[in-house]
Each structure stands twice: as structure tokens, then as C-alpha cells.
Amino acid sequence: MALKYKLIYNPKAGTKRHLVSQKPDISLNLLKYLAKRYELNVDFFATQKPNHATELAKNSTNEGYDVVIAAGGDGTVGEVANGLALTEIPLGILPFGTFMNVATMLSIPRDMEQAMLLIKMGKTRKIDLGSVSVISGEIPEKPYYFLEYAGIGLDANIQRAVVAYEQRKYVIALNFLKLALRSYNWPATIKIGNEKEISVKASLITVANGNKNRGKPGNNAQVKTQRPSSYHFHI
């Protein structure tokens, strides 16, 4: 029996190359061509708002899909991963974004035909997943999961400014940018499990699940480890 695929795509993926795109970088016709070329039974769903990919992915279990494919950038991949976290449904990636840290860390080719062939082959592996259980001092209904890294301070505020700018919320973007510029040498305490405590003054603090940050090598963390690993950080 043929596998049933759900493909979630972000029509605006790749806009960080020129901040505000004049036309979508992802063509539904191209996605349909790739599915037909590799004889995959695919249903297509376009994201329409922030976190929509998470909603679409979360529904996949009850809808009978065998595989969910994320076509877009790291943001889209992260949202889909949040919807699939702790389920048995594999996540495939078509890397249409600007940096594609996750695809690079997992050795997924940037060529779309090769990436789709990889999905067709069906080889899967389990990877580490980071989670944030407290956000801005509040406990969310469920942890927020991340494949790349999570940060506070300068990095987080710049990211929020970029997102607001892409959504054409220019005043909000400017406010986050001003806040980012004031993120300088803030005192912080980092507790690693129950064993280690570090006091620092820092502009930003990052917890990495992999060794890529905006397309550049950053550290020795490995998302595709051969054995489970567990670390708890309190910042």
C-alpha cells in the first residue's frame, strides 16, 4: 500500500535573502512536479499565518498520514517539528529557505530533486530535540521544541525584530531592535542540571542543539547523535 504524504509549505520561504520578497519563492507547480516525478501520494497545504504549520502537522496523526514533509525555511521546519514532536510520524525536509541550518546539519541536499529522492527512499533516523518549558516567565501549555538553538538577549530580540519586519509590523520591529541594542552585559545565572552553576555578564546566551547558526558553524553540538542525551538548563 502506497504511503500517504502531507506536504506543508511556506509560500514566502527564502524572503530573508531580500528581506521582503516581491513574489513567492515556492511554486505549488514545482512541488506537484516533484511529487509526480517520484510517484508520491501527496496532499498539499500552504501556511497562512505564524504557527499554522504546527497546527497542520499536529492534525496529521488523526488524518492518517504516514509522512509529513516541510517545504520552506528553518522556521517552517521548526513549526512542523513542534506539531510532530513525540509522535512516530517521520519529518521530511525540502529546503527552500535562506540558511537551512537543520537541512545542513542532517546532510540533506539543497537540490530539490535530490531532497525529494531522499524522502522517497524513506530512510529515517532519530535526532535530539531541545525544549523550552518556560517562556518570558510563563509556563506554556506544552514545551516549545527546537531543532537548532534557543537564545535570550541580543539574539532573541533581533530575531523578533526580523519576524516583525517580515510581517510588515515596522513599529514593533523597531522597538525590538532598540531593545536588542540595549542588550549589553546583562547579569545572568546559568544552572546546568543540579551539578553546575555559572554567573556571567552577557549580551546573549544560546543553548544549541546543533552546530549551525544562520548557516555558519557555531560549536560542537550534534543534532544527529548516536545515543540519547539529556541536559537541563535554567537561565
Description of the structure:
The chain folds into two domains: 4-121, 3-Layer(aba) Sandwich (Rossmann fold), CATH 3.40.50.10330; 130-234, no CATH class. Helix content is 31%, strand content 25%. The chain has helices at residues 28-37, 52-58, 60-63, 74-84, 101-105, 112-121, 154-166, 170-181; strands spanning 4-9, 41-46, 67-72, 91-95, 130-132, 144-146, 149-153, 186-192, 196-202, 204-208, 212-213, 216-217, 233-234. A four-stranded parallel beta sheet has the order 2-1-3-4, sandwiched between helices. Strands 9-8-13 form a three-stranded antiparallel beta sheet, with no helix packed on it. Helix 2 packs parallel to helix 4 (74-84) and helix 7 runs antiparallel to helix 8.
Report how far apart the termini are.
49 Å
CATH architectural grouping of the largest domain: 3-Layer(aba) Sandwich
Average pLDDT rating:
83
- Within the largest sheet, what's the order of strands? 2-1-3-4
Would you summarize the structure shown here?
With 235 residues, the protein is an alpha/beta fold.
Please give the structural blueprint.
Elements: E1 4-9, H1 28-37, E2 41-46, H2 52-58, H3 60-63, E3 67-72, H4 74-84, E4 91-95, H5 101-105, H6 112-121, E5 130-132, E6 144-146, E7 149-153, H7 154-166, H8 170-181, E8 186-192, E9 196-202, E10 204-208, E11 212-213, E12 216-217, E13 233-234
Parallel strand pairs: 1-2, 1-3, 3-4
Antiparallel strand pairs: 5-6, 7-10, 8-9, 8-13, 11-12
Helix pairs in contact: 2-4, 7-8
